[in-house]
Design goal:
Length: 81
């Protein structure tokens, strides 16, 4: 039941940045990383789009906005959260 809630929670939001942030935060917490920008997201932008039910273009735009807001960092095409 808990897993189902966690996997469906990102889809209840309309905002793409919120969907991505919840998903990436859950993955980071699952692996036990606490420090900012210490966790390299193990998924491609295409995989993130598939996981959240969004188009790849939307994911790319949301990631860029999140980087400008200092929510995540992009280094050598890798996303760090």
């Amino acid at each position: 039941m808990h897993y189902r809630y966690l996997t469906s929670a990102p889809f209840s939001f309309k905002d793409p940045m919120t969907k991505l942030h919840i998903l990436m935060r859950h993955i980071k917490d699952h692996f036990g990383f606490k420090e900012k920008f210490s966790f390299p997201v193990p998924y491609t932008r295409q995989q993130l789009a598939s996981l959240t039910g969004m188009r790849i273009e939307t994911v790319i735009r949301a990631i860029k906005k999140m980087e400008k807001q200092n929510v995540l960092k992009i280094d050598n095409s890798k996303i760090y959260i």
